[in-house]
Amino acid sequence: MNERFKVDENEKIDLNKIDPDYDGKLSKDELEDLLKDNIKEIIKYQEKLYAENKQSLLIVLQALDTGGKDGTIRNVFGPINPQGCLVTSFKAPTSVELAHDILWRVHKNTPAKGMIGIFNRSHYEDVLVVKVRDWIDDEECEKRYKHINNFEKLLRDNNTRILKFFLYISKDEQKKRLEERLSVPEKNWKFAKGDLAERKLWDKYMRQFEEVLQKTSTDYAPWYIIPANNKKYRNYLISSIVLEEFKNMDPKYPEPEEGLDEIVID
Amino acid sequence: MNERFKVDENEKIDLNKIDPDYDGKLSKDELEDLLKDNIKEIIKYQEKLYAENKQSLLIVLQALDTGGKDGTIRNVFGPINPQGCLVTSFKAPTSVELAHDILWRVHKNTPAKGMIGIFNRSHYEDVLVVKVRDWIDDEECEKRYKHINNFEKLLRDNNTRILKFFLYISKDEQKKRLEERLSVPEKNWKFAKGDLAERKLWDKYMRQFEEVLQKTSTDYAPWYIIPANNKKYRNYLISSIVLEEFKNMDPKYPEPEEGLDEIVID
């Protein structure tokens, strides 16, 4: 069922053909209930993942400004035990980070065994904004796709499952959300004038997202395009895909040490 | 009201005089409701702390095995937005960590501005197990207290508030909890035979905790002794102390940039 949102590496992507308003014909209440049910199950799986201490889950969130990365983290992953869940927000790189390859700062923050790692932005920034703004050329960008794919294979070969979500909103929805940041005092702090410059490049961003999703969606680290105008649907859908992955991972409590039944506590 | 649980640096501590069963004469239901109310308020403060981006909060959890560190993190801090909350669990030090001073690995994990940092165990391990087992002598231990106090002052002078909680359970309660780990299959993985050796040193640990709490409770980084036999009371009390500290910190949404009201989104 979630398959239809997965990017098929062999099929050309046309974001214009995808409806960011899609809501599965589910009502607000239904979506809230479904999310709650999913989260309950995810919490149980997370505890087993942590106890098992053999596999990891890496979740990558990419979107344009106001796309809903923060809201997804708060609503889908907020209820998870924070001890087993590490969120890394990648900002503009520091000078030390810039003095290394694009995967250096990312590698340091990949989830350890037993952990869920969440990337709020990621190494994909290094094939998005920099390409849209022509700071790197096609050749460099192609190289980066390959490095990224190889890097993700390394993680997957070390028992890290990777789910990548592109939160897809429409340009009108972004307008609405930016206006809200301007008009609601408690949201003012999220507004950055620089976001307007990026918004002007909307179409260029969409074309670059199409290319990135196409070139870096693999069977071991697939991209999902999440219709994200409806926040409740977005949360529900992401929770469903995560839950499905947990079912595939099937983490188990470790076998007890030998001889536990003979132990007497003084 | 929470003052009574705070360690007074000028008064000698006698853990025998503190009742780990204390529950404030509150029922299970009352404690659950009070915790929920506190968490609701904490979540609001956390968002402001993050938006303000000027202060940090560091929470240190110390206890003997089964003392309830994991449960506290799950129940009190679980509902907080994971993006603003970083849990660090300190295990036995690696060889690289051992090649540095005791504060090196800790310093790397202190919370950035806007963040809550939670230490599951901490630099205090380096004045507890190592002293109880006589791996360091009194002179070295005294030096470490001073280094710790100086280090925490550095953090406080950089706008990090520090709350340190010693989760105080009785020896009988530990017995009960260890037996539960043995008898409940889903808890087997938490049982480590090594914990029994530590349990044999119970009294020595209590005396060392008394010394540590005394020597490292300061006005800028106080210790609280949390009666922790009753898990619901423990969670409620810790949430109350955290909430009180947030009220003192009084984080505020930043002032909006100039000229926001003139902006029109195309």
Written overview of the protein:
- The structure is a homodimer of 266-residue chains.
- Chain A has helices at residues 28-52, 69-77, 95-98, 104-107, 129-132, 138-157, 171-183, 194-200, 202-216, 231-249, and strands at 56-62, 85-89, 116-120, 160-168, 223-227.
- Chain A has 266 residues and is of the alpha/beta class.
- Chain A has one domain (2-248): P-loop containing nucleotide triphosphate hydrolases (Rossmann fold, 3-Layer(aba) Sandwich), CATH 3.40.50.
- Chain A has a five-stranded parallel sheet with strand order 2-3-1-4-5, sandwiched between helices.
- The longest helix of chain A has 25 residues, at 28-52.
- The model of chain A has no long low-confidence stretch (mean pLDDT 95).
- The interface between A and B is large, with 40 and 40 residues.
What topology does this entry show?
The structure is a homodimer of 266-residue chains.
Chain A: H1 28-52, E1 56-62, H2 69-77, E2 85-89, H3 95-98, H4 104-107, E3 116-120, H5 129-132, H6 138-157, E4 160-168, H7 171-183, H8 194-200, H9 202-216, E5 223-227, H10 231-249
Parallel strand pairs in A: 1-3, 1-4, 2-3, 4-5
Report the CATH superfamily of chain A.
P-loop containing nucleotide triphosphate hydrolases
Helix % of chain A is: 40-55%
Shape label of chain A: globular
* Unreliable segments of 5+ consecutive residues of chain A: none
Give the tally of β-strands of chain A.
5
Portion of residues in beta strands of chain A equals 5-15%
Largest interface: A-B, 40 and 40 residues
Give the SSE order of chain A as H and E letters.
HEHEHHEHHEHHHEH
Overall radius of gyration of chain A: 20 Å
CATH fold title of chain A: Rossmann fold
Indicate the structural class of chain A. Answer: alpha/beta
Assembly classification? homodimer
Strand order of the largest sheet of chain A: 2-3-1-4-5
CATH architecture of chain A: 3-Layer(aba) Sandwich
Main beta-sheet annotation of chain A: 5 strands, parallel
CATH uppermost class of chain A:
Alpha Beta
Total domain units of chain A: 1
The end-to-end span of chain A amounts to 54 Å
Q: Helical element count of chain A?
A: 10
